[in-house]
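agent> fetching stored inputs for the adenosine-5'-triphosphate docking request
agent> found them:
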Amino acid sequence: MSAPSDSQRPPSPTSGSARMEKIVSLCKRRGFIFQSSEIYGGLNGLWDYGPLGAELKRNLKNYWWRVMVHERDDVVGMDGSILMNRAVWKASGHEDTFTDPMVDCRSCKARLRADQLVEKKGAKQCPVCGGKDLTEPRSFNLMFKTYVGATEDESSVTYLRPETAQAIFVQFKSILDVSRKKLPFGIAQIGKAFRNEINPRNFTFRSREFEQMELEYFCRVEEGMKLLEYWKEERLKFYKNIGIARDKLHVLTVPDEERAFYSKGTYDIEYDFPFGRQELEGVAYRTDYDLSQHQKASGKSLEYFDEETKQKFIPHVVEPSAGVDRTVLALICEAYSEDQAPDEKGKMETRMVLRFRPRIAPIKCGVFPLLKNNEQLVAKAKEIVDLLRPHMSIFYDESGAIGRRYRRQDEIGTPFGITVDFETLGEKDSALCDTVTLRERDSMKQERVAIKDLANLLVAQIS
Ligand code: ATP
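agent> prediction call returned; pasting tokens
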């Protein structure tokens, strides 16, 4: 007996906010993302990733590392500390200028970013209560301040890093020396960053603690603008390869007046989230600003020596800087869909499905014995689990009707399902002995596959 087959219908349209509500609730219900410290009422702008969210995030980071570091000869990785000498943040400009203009609403006491006020009939209003009694904008530094060591005074102040990039700049010379790379070359890093955002919002989109995936790609001055274009295109390819539709991505050329003063060109790669078009990643040509600043402030040379021309100079840098959490959210939003599929009795019902690319999906394959009270079916299914587990994340499920087990996996985006049935045991047709049903999540199509071919077949599709 084979598992029942399903059919597919086009997704039903839902409005942005209704869609977002469903996504947030699915994330909680199935263990992708929870509010941090939830049992104590949470803490605004902070999130915990549950079992599936942690897998999804790890798959994204691993794929970024693979593409940006392992598959290239010209990039090496590093893993810097979160706390650094305060002098780093003085030299980089963060201590003085990493600020948002902030306004308080005197009516409801909300603290708001000045650029997020709503304007009605020429007057600025509080987006929370509609009040017009607002303070003048004041600068608010987004870095979290902390103290290192036993004394809490000015001499022990530092900050949780607001970006990972500065660790790369201050180690530029050491990494250049040990890696013996020639320009152009890059240093990549994935790690936590912290910003005391005034208004964390849109689920994990704007958080106070988040992860970044950053590459600093060092080059000669004359290569800067060309490499800016190159990295923008590379990064667009990356998003395509993790399953984000090209037509939902937009490249914004950041206008001169909004760019950091030292940048000669910046692109924002934006995604159409259900709550609007928002930045996923910035690709910026930062010139030689950061290295020059650190060389000046530290008094240590951060120059590159060109053996051919015998010249010494400070390299320029192009930086693709992506947010892990924002990309995870984009992946979930992109994957979320609903269609119609028949239930156990053939009646059509709404199916919730996360259409993750197999390489990104938290669980790659579900394994199901058709009946849980049949020892032979269970033993065979467990054999398959053992066979596949070294290659991928597996979920073994023996409880409930097979159709319901498929639905549970569809909902968390598992691309493949393997069902062990009586044909696997060779009871009906000896030719089918040691074959299983392999079901594909999106098409719901099923085919018979020999157990011995499963690992190769699946590994080819998830890598
Ligand atoms: P925004 O304008 O949305 O505040 P930004 O331009 O300040 O972002 P960058 O400093 O360029 O962001 O940081 C690079 C990337 O880090 C962003 O594209 C984003 O993916 C991620 N990022 C920045 N701030 C946050 C945050 N508060 N929460 C989650 N991710 C963030």
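agent> quick read of the result: The two ends are 31 Å apart (CA to CA).
agent> awaiting further instructions
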